[in-house]
Amino acid sequence: LSVPAAAMETMVLRGLALALALPSLALENGLARTPPMGWMSWERFRCNVDCQADPRNCISEQLFFEMADRLAEDGWRELGYKYINIDDCWSAKQRDEAGQLVPDPKRFPSGIKALADYVHARGLKLGIYGDLGIFTCGGYPGTMLEHVKQDAQTFAAWGVDMLKLDGCYSTAEEQAKGYPEMARALNATGRPIVYSCSWPAYQGGLPPKVNYTILAEICNLWRNYDDIQDSWDSVLSIVDWFSTNQDVLQPAAGPGHWNDPDMLIIGNFGLSYEQSRSQMALWTVMAAPLLMSTDLRTISPSAKEILQNRLMIQINQDPLGIQGRRIVKEKSHIEVFLRPLSRAASALVFFSRRTDMPFRYTTSLAKLHFPEDAVYEVQDVYVGKIVGALKTADNFSVVINPSGVVMWYLRPMALPVQRQYVRQQAPGNGFHSTLL
Question: Do 70 and 297 touch, CB atoms closer than 8 A?
Fold first, then answer.
């Protein structure tokens, strides 16, 4: 293929202009191609630093050693839960004489490097917390602009694999300088460090104050909205905000850059069994990071079963990385969410906001904008069983418990002519489709 000289010159000039425009922004560290999965301390353990009165639950190296053991030994790591993330309140109250952040000597006597080594030896990764400001939200030393490079180098030297950079005690101007500066500083260390930003959450989460095109070039994931609390009201407020603003938020997500609605609180105190299933399904369909914040040492079998659902995790980690959307909001307080997946598959979540009794919801794939004349194999994500084959035009009903979900995984068995599929029969499972 020959390209005319003038066209080639134009292409080169455009490429050069793009290269000159982007180096100050582009992260492109090749990380977080699917939403990060793991465990984070904040929601469950907060800023509990009283290790004398509460040694088992305070923010200390012992807590992180024990959670790393649980991830490695209880089946979490093999499912993709690989990050052990330290949140606020880990450091000493002052930087050292060289201006370097140091861990609290009583609560982290071995140091962060030793903790990282322990985590890495178990096939896991370590995350840490910083704050772009005078102080962290918990009142510990923050990262002022003059400390950005130094702190990035410190984290890299310790063997850190993810940085969450909060935004308490900083101005909008400092954030506009500091968040891109930290991206550059992390890249300059040569260590692959996933970069989680709280920047949009401090600017209201929406344009014009938040430019998601720029943000996706700076951060691997970002907090858009309020901190999650251990309550169903908190979960609903986050789902409402993300759904209301999905036209802005949904296009911003993709491999390497994710909206983060905050931690999974499944296994704590505030959610019922049905509500726990709902949070997991809704976070999955939103292509959210799956960062648990619960006590893995005492988690109930039912909470563990929800969090370790293999098909759910497969959907969350789908390589296309398309964030789902709410596509139906009924007067009956039933909502439907759809996430397109690779190989022309889809995930559907039927979500009930009702508080009275199980509700029978009837619809069809045609009403949910699926292609005409297609046939799908339907699998119930929580039950695990194949529901059956479903044509686009067929009406169907699902029974949804109050505050609960029914979640389906739909694989195409036959699609309209523009897409070609072969059908391969698997013993006992009906037909499975392979995209040609």
Answer: yes
